[in-house]
Design goal:
Elements (H helix, E strand, L loop, with lengths): L1 E6 L13 E6 L2 E5 L5 H5 L10 E3 L5 H4 L2 H14 L8 E4 L4 H5 L8 E4 L6 E3 L2 E7 L7 E6 L4 E4 L7 H7 L4 E5 L16 H11 L3 E5 L7 H9 L6 E4 L5 E3 L3
Parallel strand pairs: 3-4, 4-5, 5-6, 10-11, 11-12, 12-13
Antiparallel strand pairs: 1-2, 1-14, 2-3, 7-8, 8-9, 9-10
Bound molecules: zinc ion (ZN) (2 copies).
């Protein structure tokens, strides 16, 4: 599978960029994981909107769902403006926040499908598994698998050893890193660089991508602070268009 960073900013997007959004592709099937503010505009650098097959939302904070309405309107207008016939399309989310889940669907244009922690879900060629995180609102990390590769995305969370267990065996861990070493994100349900590195070390993953990055400081420092916790892991900090093809 191939993963591309569409947006990676904590809370709100920097000028010309986007908050959380990751395009995951395999066998000509495209899933957008999270759809934060600015994502629909930036996504079009990497994928025609007509070619998107599904969206999976981790939770209903605006930096993860803020642009879902733009996708609704795109699907509404597609029959009138696109040369291509619309493909089946669905948005997946949890139902622990009923109002949040209702934001996913739109008239008879976009259908919302629930996921939960207790069952894996086949979405195109991918198998998704979900793990509750430590966050002020219900939020799910996800493991995304094909027969050849595994991606693990923490979504928003404070440090949790359980997530390291769940991420074991992943080819790439995409971990949120909202703060620098020494800053305590636990009450807000976020990790700092040291905790993200600790998570990667405990999960024993070969590669770590730090994302959901703060609007202050030097992101290069985040990488150094995480690397100190897991010397043998290849670490990158997210940037727009960062991309990696995973295979075993
Ligand atoms: Zn959040
Ligand atoms: Zn967030």
């Amino acid at each position: 599978m191939k993963v591309t960073v569409i947006g990676y900013w904590h809370a709100f997007p920097k000028k010309g960029e986007a908050a959380s959004g990751y395009l995951v592709e395999h066998d000509n099937y495209r899933v957008l994981v999270d759809c934060g503010s600015g994502v629909v505009s930036q996504l079009q650098h990497y994928c025609e909107l007509e070619d998107l097959d599904a969206v999976v939302i981790s939770h209903y904070h605006n930096d993860h769902i803020g642009d879902i309405g733009a996708l609704h309107y795109f699907r509404l207008l597609t029959p009138y403006i696109s040369q291509k016939a619309a493909k089946p399309f669905a948005v997946y989310g949890h139902q622990e926040d009923v109002q949040g889940f209702q934001r996913l669907s739109y008239k008879d244009v976009v259908n919302a499908i629930p996921y939960n922690e207790n069952q894996t879900l086949d979405i195109g060629p991918f198998q998704f598994s979900f793990y509750k995180t430590s966050h002020p609102v219900p939020c799910y990390a996800m493991k995304i698998q094909t027969s050849a590769s595994t991606l693990f995305y923490t979504a928003d969370t404070g440090y949790m050893p359980e997530l390291a267990e769940a991420a074991k065996g992943a080819d790439l861990l995409i971990a949120e890193c909202s703060l620098y070493k020494g800053q305590d994100g636990t009450p807000a349900g976020h990790m700092n660089s040291e905790e993200a590195g600790k998570l990667a070390n405990a999960a024993d993953v070969p590669a770590l991508l730090l994302t959901h990055l703060p609007h202050f400081g030097d992101h290069g420092q985040l990488k150094k602070e995480a690397q100190a916790q897991c010397p043998s892991t290849i670490i990158d900090t997210a940037s727009a268009g960062w991309s990696k093809t995973l295979s075993t």
